[in-house]
Amino acid sequence: MKKKYIIQITAFLIIIVGIAVITYLPEKAESRGHDSPPTVFVHGYKGTINSFGNMLYRFEEQYEWGNKSLIYKISNNGNIRVYNLNKGRAEPVFIQVILENNRASFRDGAQWLSTVLSHMKQHYQIDNVNIVGHSMGGLISMKYIEEYQNNMEHPVTEKLVTIGSPFDGVYSQTYFQINHDAAATDLKPNSAALQLLRKTKETIPGDLEVLSIGSTGDLIAKPKSVNAIRMIIPADQLKTVMIENNQLGHSELHENQQVDQLIYSFLWK
């Protein structure tokens, strides 16, 4: 009788745990696909192909939200190499942008992103995009939208997601004792580059939708700095989510399933 009771309790616990796991996992895309433009992913400071690599793998293989179709690699002099990975799967498609100089200024990063998006329009007839940027990638994407987006030369950006992007700069003094390059200069609080982002906010399209994601555990892009996006994007165009998790650090943001689900809900649901 005791053995039978233990078996019953164990089976019950397995069912409860199974339900919890199923509840937590992000939902899969509906089979009908999405009426959504391609989504461009831009890494942050010192980022590489691995920065969004795991996220895109989850999006494609685990959740079946779309397929990674293009990789753009941009050299220091602005030349681009394109890797076409299109597998003929359902929309939306994902496009990953890799900057060879991942410590460049906001100005250079935005100009290179402009070159990539112009190429997409000319060679792949992509007229509309969404952009997801992590950390400085979100700042570069914002600068691109402010200064380079042109309907004749570039796709229209419909939605922008910034993940751990410090719109008021990085507050840590230790950070700048280690990093001394052009990007680090731009990331300093009250830098000329950050001031310019706020000064040119009038050029932000009135129909652009923006989602800003941050974490209380991020020691690089602290909540106050992430929320400074409000000085650029009008309230009716902006959704902000600050995840209350002191264990969720800066780089962990693009490895987090809650962040995955927030992106999905904002871009494709």
TrEMBL record:
Native organism is: Virgibacillus necropolis
Q: Does the keyword Transmembrane apply?
A: yes
Gene3D superfamilies the record matches: alpha/beta hydrolase
Q: What is the lineage of its organism?
A: Bacteria, Bacillati, Bacillota, Bacilli, Bacillales
Which segment of the chain is annotated as a signal peptide? none
Coiled-coil parts of chain: none
Record keywords, A-Z = Membrane, Transmembrane, Transmembrane helix
* Cross-referenced Pfam families: DUF915
Q: What is this protein called?
A: Alpha/beta hydrolase
